[in-house]
Amino acid sequence: MRKQLHSTLLIALLPGLLSACLSFAETPGERFRKAIKGIEAACAKRKLDPNEVCGGVAKLKPADPLATEEGRFAHSIKIPNPVSEDSGYKPGMTPEQYLDHLCKTEAGEFIYKTVENVEGITLLRPRVKANYEYSHLFAFEDPFGFEAGPAFFVSLGGYTYYETASNSIEQGPTYTRYFGYDGRSPETLQSANEAQRKSRYGYTWRGVVRPHDRENGIGGGEVILVDLETNDVLAVHRGYAQFRMDERMGLLKAGWQKRCPSIQATGGPHGHFILKVLKPGNRNVPRVGGHNATK
């Protein structure tokens, strides 16, 4: 009878004990900071050659979403389906459980209006080329997204042109317009610098910033499509990525290795989504396949 009582008590207490163990487990954020300290300590012991960079990843700083005018504009946009400040995280969740929760409840395509016969589009906030950032938990504002590039949009995508914005201290806002790519030879892709934007439609991106995400190795991002004449939000694409570290290799094998929604072979995370909302006037566009999570 006593053995049966002990077994019953153990079964009753087991969920609580497991939850407590998970609560005290080392988070991806804690493992990352420990790895950074190890790199800094190893570099401090070495005598570096002239111009040698030791521990480049350890020198990076967390991304500042509001550091640029383009970033401030992106984060000022009010969308119809903003993420909740309460992400649904519960103490004891593993990073995998948390990512799965966000993928089911927040990730996907949200289309409010489509536009036909679009001649060209403007990328309002170009992304900075990354290097060590891929192995850093906090340096990427949006670790989910990246751009398909001009060639995808002006050939495969069917737009007549594709513009990217830049902000010069001397000249103010300027635009690079790409056009002419034949889909085969990279030399046919032409570009011209312009003082004025030509397209009525543009898109920008921003990171999802909340307390529990990065500490649990999760980073999210949104791409927002906008009518630049009316300021109407046409659509939002939201996705999440998971940061993983190899226990033996540390940050040498670390990176953002798992994403939802899944990424297509062509067009990256957002290319086909943009074509679906801002439909090119050129109808010789490949069939859009792959993930479709319109909500």
Describe the structure.
The chain has 6 helices and 11 strands. It is α/β, with parallel strands linked by helices. It has one domain. Strands 1, 3, 4, 5, 6, 7, 8, 9 and 10 form a 9-stranded mixed beta sheet that branches. Strand 3, helix 5 and strand 4 form a beta-alpha-beta unit. The protein is globular, with a radius of gyration of 23 Å. The N terminus and C terminus are likely disordered.
Descriptors for this entry?
single chain, two-stranded parallel ribbon, alpha/beta, disordered N terminus, disordered C terminus, 295 residues, 6 helices, 11 strands, 9-stranded mixed β-sheet
SSE topology sketch:
Blueprint: H1 2-23, H2 28-45, H3 69-76, H4 95-105, E1 108-111, E2 115-118, E3 120-123, H5 150-156, E4 161-168, E5 172-179, E6 190-194, E7 201-208, E8 218-227, E9 233-246, E10 250-260, H6 271-277, E11 278-280
- How many extended strands? 11
| Oligomerization category of the chains in this entry | single chain
- Let me know the average pLDDT: 85
Question: What is the molecular shape?
Answer: globular
Helix and strand run: HHHHEEEHEEEEEEEHE
**Class of secondary structure makeup:** alpha/beta
Sum this structure up briefly.
This protein is 25% helix and 27% strand.
